[in-house]
Amino acid sequence: MRMIDLSHFIEEGMPQYPGQPEIKIERLAEVEKDGYQLTELKDVVHLGTHCDAPAHFIEKGDTIEKLPVDFYSGEAVIVDVPHLPDRLMRPELLEGVDLKEGDIVIFRTGMSKYWREEAYIKEFPYLTEELAHFLVDKKVKAIGLDTISPDPVETEDFPVHHVLLGNKVGIIENLTNLEAIDKKRFLFIALPLKIKGSDGSPVRAVAILE
Fold this sequence. Notes:
Glucose Oxidase, domain 1, seven-stranded mixed barrel, 12% helix, hydrolase, single chain, two-stranded antiparallel sheet, alpha/beta, 4 helices
């Protein structure tokens, strides 16, 4: 068994979705001075590699603690996304993919290599609303992306988030190291913190390969 880490570091200066506050990490106590170390983390819950709960966009949608513990975990299939001049990910992208009910679909775009560059925010491919409906019709469990969002940052109505979360399809964003996965199918694990009333959570995402 091999376990592959798919999560970004949480650190000051890391990329954030436009409009979010900058992350602050402050040392409140030091071993040398206080006898123990204590660190304070200030940011929103949609931080680094994280998951979206239905409540993120759906009125009266489930918050993170109301979801099953395996909501973002299960059998996954990887989908390689070629360079798309128009940046649009359409249903045709899944032609030839052996998609099963309950799958977690991991889109490998290669954008994680631009993590600290402007391109990561402005040039990533994103799902069409048609593809979102296609995934719902196929009864997938969740999607994962090595990008900052399944919608473009220019959007004002977030149609893909609404389609997926409105149908209880989980979303995991800002994955990394997907190039280390050398199998089409694997076990994907992403466990959120059990934050009461929260619309999302950072996750430690991993791939488990036999």
